[in-house]
Amino acid sequence: MSKIKDEHASSNKKMISLPISRELFVQHLAHSSFNNGPGKETNSLSYSDLANTAEETETFHFLTDILPKKILARDYLRTLEQMEEEDADF
Protein backbone atom coordinates (compact mmCIF):
# COMPACT_ATOMS: atom_id res chain seq x y z
CA MET A 1 0.00 0.00 0.00
CA SER A 2 2.85 2.36 0.83
CA LYS A 3 4.43 1.71 -2.56
CA ILE A 4 1.23 2.80 -4.32
CA LYS A 5 1.14 6.01 -2.29
CA ASP A 6 4.79 6.73 -3.15
CA GLU A 7 4.12 6.21 -6.86
CA HIS A 8 1.09 8.47 -6.68
CA ALA A 9 3.08 11.19 -4.89
CA SER A 10 5.86 10.87 -7.47
CA SER A 11 3.35 11.17 -10.29
CA ASN A 12 1.88 14.32 -8.73
CA LYS A 13 5.34 15.89 -8.45
CA LYS A 14 5.95 15.22 -12.14
CA MET A 15 2.61 16.74 -13.08
CA ILE A 16 3.47 19.87 -11.14
CA SER A 17 7.08 20.21 -12.27
CA LEU A 18 6.40 19.95 -16.02
CA PRO A 19 4.22 23.09 -16.29
CA ILE A 20 6.65 24.96 -14.05
CA SER A 21 9.62 23.99 -16.24
CA ARG A 22 7.69 25.01 -19.37
CA GLU A 23 6.88 28.35 -17.83
CA LEU A 24 10.51 28.93 -16.85
CA PHE A 25 11.68 28.02 -20.36
CA VAL A 26 9.26 30.45 -22.00
CA GLN A 27 10.24 33.10 -19.48
CA HIS A 28 13.94 32.55 -20.28
CA LEU A 29 13.23 32.80 -24.02
CA ALA A 30 11.24 36.01 -23.52
CA HIS A 31 13.93 37.61 -21.33
CA SER A 32 16.70 36.67 -23.76
CA SER A 33 14.70 38.00 -26.71
CA PHE A 34 13.85 41.21 -24.90
CA ASN A 35 17.42 41.87 -23.73
CA ASN A 36 19.03 41.09 -27.10
CA GLY A 37 16.43 42.73 -29.33
CA PRO A 38 15.43 46.29 -30.17
CA GLY A 39 12.36 46.00 -27.95
CA LYS A 40 14.36 47.15 -24.96
CA GLU A 41 14.17 50.77 -26.14
CA THR A 42 10.41 50.60 -26.80
CA ASN A 43 9.70 48.32 -23.82
CA SER A 44 8.04 45.73 -26.06
CA LEU A 45 8.61 42.21 -27.31
CA SER A 46 7.63 41.15 -30.82
CA TYR A 47 7.54 37.94 -32.80
CA SER A 48 10.58 39.07 -34.79
CA ASP A 49 12.55 39.43 -31.54
CA LEU A 50 11.72 35.83 -30.65
CA ALA A 51 12.57 34.60 -34.18
CA ASN A 52 15.91 36.45 -34.16
CA THR A 53 16.81 35.00 -30.77
CA ALA A 54 15.94 31.49 -31.97
CA GLU A 55 18.13 31.93 -35.04
CA GLU A 56 21.09 33.70 -33.44
CA THR A 57 21.36 32.00 -30.04
CA GLU A 58 22.72 28.46 -29.96
CA THR A 59 20.63 27.58 -26.92
CA PHE A 60 17.40 28.30 -28.78
CA HIS A 61 18.52 27.26 -32.26
CA PHE A 62 16.26 24.18 -32.17
CA LEU A 63 13.29 26.58 -32.28
CA THR A 64 14.10 27.95 -35.76
CA ASP A 65 11.55 25.61 -37.36
CA ILE A 66 8.89 26.69 -34.88
CA LEU A 67 9.77 30.41 -34.89
CA PRO A 68 10.89 31.16 -38.46
CA LYS A 69 11.60 34.71 -39.50
CA LYS A 70 8.65 36.34 -41.18
CA ILE A 71 8.85 36.81 -44.91
CA LEU A 72 6.50 38.74 -47.17
CA ALA A 73 4.51 36.71 -49.66
CA ARG A 74 5.98 38.62 -52.62
CA ASP A 75 9.51 37.87 -51.40
CA TYR A 76 8.65 34.20 -51.00
CA LEU A 77 7.13 34.02 -54.49
CA ARG A 78 10.16 35.81 -55.93
CA THR A 79 12.44 33.27 -54.26
CA LEU A 80 10.36 30.41 -55.66
CA GLU A 81 10.58 31.88 -59.16
CA GLN A 82 14.37 32.21 -58.84
CA MET A 83 14.64 28.61 -57.68
CA GLU A 84 12.52 27.44 -60.64
CA GLU A 85 14.71 29.44 -63.05
CA GLU A 86 17.84 27.89 -61.57
CA ASP A 87 16.32 24.41 -61.88
CA ALA A 88 15.36 25.13 -65.49
CA ASP A 89 18.96 26.14 -66.31
CA PHE A 90 20.23 22.68 -65.35
Proportion of residues in extended strands: under 5%
Q: What is the class in the CATH system?
A: Mainly Alpha
Q: Count every beta strand, where a strand is a DSSP E run of 2 or more residues.
A: 0
CATH structural fold name: Histone, subunit A
Distance between the termini: 72 Å
Mean pLDDT: 86
* CATH hierarchy: architecture: Orthogonal Bundle
**Helix percent band:** over 70%
What's the order of the H and E elements?
HHHH
Rg estimate, integer Å: 22 Å
Shape: elongated
Protein name: Putative chromatin accessibility complex protein 1 isoform 2
InterPro entries: Histone-fold
GO molecular function, one term: protein heterodimerization activity
Draw up the topology in text.
Layout: H1 2-36, H2 39-42, H3 47-56, H4 73-89
Helix pairs in contact: 1-3
List key phrases describing it.
4 helices; mainly alpha; Histone, subunit A; protein heterodimerization activity; 90 residues; single chain; Histone-fold; 0% strand
Structural overview:
- Helix content is 73%, strand content 0%.
- By secondary structure, the chain is an all-alpha fold.
- The protein has a single domain (2-89), classed as Histone, subunit A (Orthogonal Bundle).
- α1 crosses α3.
- The longest helix has 35 residues, at 2-36.
- The termini are far apart.
- The model has no long low-confidence stretch (mean pLDDT 86).
